[in-house]
Specification:
Blueprint lengths: L19 H5 L7 E3 L4 E4 L7 H6 L7 E4 L8 E4 L18 E9 L5 H8 L6 E3 L11 E4 L4 E4 H4 L11 H16 L5 H21 L1 H10 L2 E6 L7 E8 L6 H18 L4 E9 L5 H5 L2 E2 L11
Parallel strand pairs: 10-11
Antiparallel strand pairs: 1-4, 2-3, 4-5, 5-7, 5-8, 6-7, 9-10, 9-12
Helix pairs in contact: 6-7, 6-8
Length: about 300
């Protein structure tokens, strides 16, 4: 039985509306287009967002809810992978929808938070730097909301570049992939490793921003060698760098931090490390045995 998505799909490339597939070849993941009206399904009786609460003034039953026109952002970011847009390598295109995320102006945030967004510390907010050349502001895609649009609509939209270079634009794919593939970790890991470590990192940034920035520049990502993600009993913390070994200052901080984690965990969770490895020297097979957890400051799950 076919999916409802297949209903009405052209039976050949030539059956697609004239010019649509050719026009889509110009679009790439990370391009910016006008934001369409945004709709989500909600329940006014159990409202979480302001839009749902506003609907609750007039309705009681669950229903589709459309953002008020004044709340719809000016732009949206294409989050669908480039190869899935025009489906140029597919004899028969089978993907009629493209996902977009709203781009919001966060200029009212303080400089420190804007800086963290630029550095990718908020995994659901992605800075889109070139948009400030079109309109003053601090523009970021909110990846918590993705909305499907038909490709026929997309093909007719004005396309803007949100990133300076192709390499910069690859941040979109990495951000979307991380949201989908980040590992789910059990409560002992969250309680005795993730939360205490995030607290220590925050304290370091408050006390010595220079040292925190140095460590961030030296540690490309952190990872763990763990016996079970959901029911861990043994965890080894691994710090991964690129091109050079972290400085003695960074290594000393991490050794002290892991000692403190061990003290807090007691006998319920064995914490080993830290182990320092270089990504340019580490065998791929060894890396794949680790659970990678991105930058130390970046959230990898909803802890």
């Amino acid at each position: 039985m076919a999916s409802f998505v297949d209903d009405g799909l052209p039976a050949a490339r030539e059956g697609w509306p004239h010019g649509v597939l050719n026009a889509l070849e110009e679009f790439t993941q990370g391009d910016v287009v006008p934001c369409p009206p945004l709709v989500f399904h909600g329940d006014p009786a159990c409202a979480i967002t302001q839009t749902a609460r506003d609907y609750g003034l007039d309705y009681e039953d669950e229903m589709p809810m459309e953002l008020h026109a004044d709340d719809v952002p000016r732009w949206a970011l294409i989050t669908t992978g480039t190869c899935d847009l025009a489906e140029a390598d597919a004899p028969l295109p089978l993907k009629p929808f493209v996902q977009v995320s709203p781009i919001v102006n966060l200029a009212d945030l303080d400089g420190g938070k804007r800086r963290l967004i630029r550095q990718g510390r908020y995994n659901y907010l992605l800075h889109v730097p070139l948009l400030s050349t079109y309109e003053p502001g601090f523009w970021a895609a909110d990846l918590r909301f993705e909305y499907p649009v038909e490709k026929g609509w997309l093909a007719k939209q004005e396309r803007l570049k949100g990133f300076e270079s192709e390499r910069d634009q690859e941040a979109v794919g990495r951000a979307v992939a991380w949201l989908r593939e980040r590992p789910a970790m059990g409560a002992p890991f969250i309680q005795f490793v993730a939360i205490p470590l995030r607290t220590m990192l925050g304290d370091l940034r408050t006390a010595d921003r220079g040292a925190a920035d140095l460590m961030d520049s030296e540690i490309a990502e952190w990872a763990v060698s763990i016996d079970s993600r959901l029911e861990p009993r043994r965890v080894e913390i691994v710090l991964l760098s690129e091109g050079s070994t972290p400085s003695a200052t960074s290594q000393a901080w991490w050794r002290n931090a892991v000692d403190r984690l061990r003290e807090g965990a007691g006998d319920g969770l064995v914490i080993l490390g830290p182990r320092f490895e270089r990504l340019d020297q580490m065998p791929v097979s060894d890396y794949r045995r680790l659970t990678a957890l991105a930058k130390p400051h970046q959230k990898f799950s909803n802890e």
